[in-house]
């Protein structure tokens, strides 16, 4: 099995792992104007992908 010629520096390791950093909860605005999580039904109006799928929870 091949072995690396040099030790991987701390900077290289940290650069590689930087893309895994937690970026927080991503939200989008629904058509009704309420924030919602992507690929989920809107809790305030009950719509998904431009159509009504459930009754509004209010």
From TrEMBL:
InterPro entries for this protein: Ribosomal_bL32, Ribosomal_bL32_bact, Ribosomal_zn-bd
Keywords, in A-Z order: Ribonucleoprotein, Ribosomal protein
Top-level taxon: Bacteria
Presence of keyword Ribonucleoprotein: yes
This protein's record includes keyword Ribonucleoprotein: yes
GO CC field: ribosome
Pfam families: Ribosomal_L32p
Family note: Belongs to the bacterial ribosomal protein bL32 family.
Cited HAMAP family: Ribosomal_bL32
PANTHER family: 50S RIBOSOMAL PROTEIN L32, LARGE RIBOSOMAL SUBUNIT PROTEIN BL32
Listed name of the protein: Large ribosomal subunit protein bL32
Originating species: Lentisphaera profundi
Gene encoding the protein: rpmF
